[in-house]
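Troubleshooting log. The previous structure file for this entry was overwritten by mistake, so regenerating from the original sequence record. Sequence copied from the archived sheet and checked twice against the printout by T.R.
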Amino acid sequence: MVSAESLLKITDNNNTLYVRGENGDTVTLNGNWEQAEGLVANGVNYNHYTSSAADGSVVQLYIEDDVTIG
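Regenerated output below.
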């Protein structure tokens, strides 16, 4: 389960996390996330989500498009 607060704690100053996976993998988003424009990086398609932490920091989450969002 990924929340804005948990992502903020595990990332550097860019507040960005990339998640790779395959069919059958699931990431559960906790809290208020908005889907943004996707990204292709190194031939991998990512779905892009943004959220705000309690301190106002914006966090960005890129999840490989084979991964299910739960």
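The chain has a mean pLDDT of 97. Archived copy saved in two places this time.
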